[in-house]
Amino acid sequence: MEEMVGRVLGTSDATPLEFWVGVAEGEYLELDDVVALERVLPTGELVKIFGTISQVRARHEGARFDSDVFLIEDGVLPAAVQEAAQVTATRVEPEIFVPPRPGQPVRRAHDEERDQALFFDRMDRRFPVGASRNGEPLFANLEFINGQRGAHVNISGVSGVATKTSYATFLLHSMFTSGVLGSAVVNTKALIFNVKGEDLLHLDRPNTSLDDDAERLYRALGLPAQPFGSVGLFAPPRPGSDRAVADVSSRSDLTSFFWTLAEFCHEDLMVFLFADAEDERAQYTMVVYNVMAQLRHAEAADGGSVRVEGETVRTFRELADLITRKVQDEDSRNEWAGPHIGAGTVNAFVRRLQVAVRHVDRLIRGDIANPERHRIEVQGHQVTVVDLHNLNDRAKRFVVGVAVRRAFEDKERAGQSEELLFLVLDELNKYAPREGTSPIKEVLLDVAERGRSLGVILIGAQQTASEVERRIIANSSIRVVGRLDSAEASREEYGFLPAAQRQRATILKPGTMLLAQPEIPVPLVLEFPFPAWATRASEAAPAPIGSDGPIDPFQDL
User: What is the pLDDT of residues 174-205, one digit of tens each?
Assistant: First the structure.
């Protein structure tokens, strides 16, 4: 049994849920240490109490004034230095909630006792989510992610410091390689939207900056230090390209994506061009829905082009000009814009439609042969990355809205299964803001509230959870926090963090996170290893000579 590190104090109240421990001479306790003790009841029953250290203090015993510290150090006044640690109880077995008795010995918990203290012994489907400060693995319960008992992950933190995207990809890597998914891993997919730079376009390449310490941490967690083995990469076409060449500079083996004019017309995609919260409150949204009703009658032509009332349209600019004529012409206004719609409302719609043209014309087209080759397809690879970083915000919202809705509808048609679809989306506050409504927000709310039953799991990230729709945050069973701004840390959205951890969140270093999950009453402070996959072009190991990349074991499934 572990040696005693201290005894329960008798000078501070001890309760079943919180008590103080005097640290023994020559020992120390630090934040997040896991401890254990026993109390024997008058009936002879043994009660085990487990907890974590939530605060540590040190003070002079015998001093009365602040200036006494100088006299004590000079040996003039006698005093002793005493350290004490506050313990927050995490588990009581059996559940007889009695306080520990003053003077009872306290020890560090290791191995089986540590697993008991943190409920790891009750997690039938656990997977590593990081390591404690002393290098021991920390786990999460897959049942609170896969929809069995809960679903969804939300990650908050300051941009560039909190490593939100790095941690999201680490969670995917852990679930895909730890064996927790069992046979379902073969058909479990991830759809990742890359919104900043080209950092996520190298997940299939080894990281040349990976050092020995990181590899040892992967081994301690039971995970392979290797890149993702099955990655599909998609990027928008380069502006003005008549061959739909992908608009990416760091590698050339990407597939460009776009939607055909026929899909735009027949699948009501126009609504995602007007996806600002302010759009939904405006009168011109009535025109949007009336125009979509008319576009459903468009006839599909070759290459994804359409014929609208006898006129062939091959580019989005041509379609926008046609719509503009129809809603402004006196003879067709009532049919296309709707009855009793004023000229001001029509003009507001036209202005926004024409502004959108230069941002999305490369994403909606009918001038490329075999357009099905340029469709975002998540079934071809285990991880699909859709690059958005070169797009305007309106175009980003269009891509996210259409891609998420289509993926959700595909899962809805397939029905519930153990094969999951993870949707990884950063800057969640842009797509599901707290105030207002929009088509994208409605889709993401549908994912948050119904996705659990279909196996669609949202891993959302943002700088400020206070700016994201409450229902999305509330439906996230796993909440992760990296470095926070001090003002943000004080918001009610972080009420699940104890006061000491809120304060710590403002000084967390990159690679350190706070993770809260339903089974454990206190958030875990964890470190996760440096990515084994390249996070930028300069880190990426070159592809083998004579090959287009690593062999993809999932590509033909």
Answer: 999 999 999 999 999 999 999 988 889 999 99
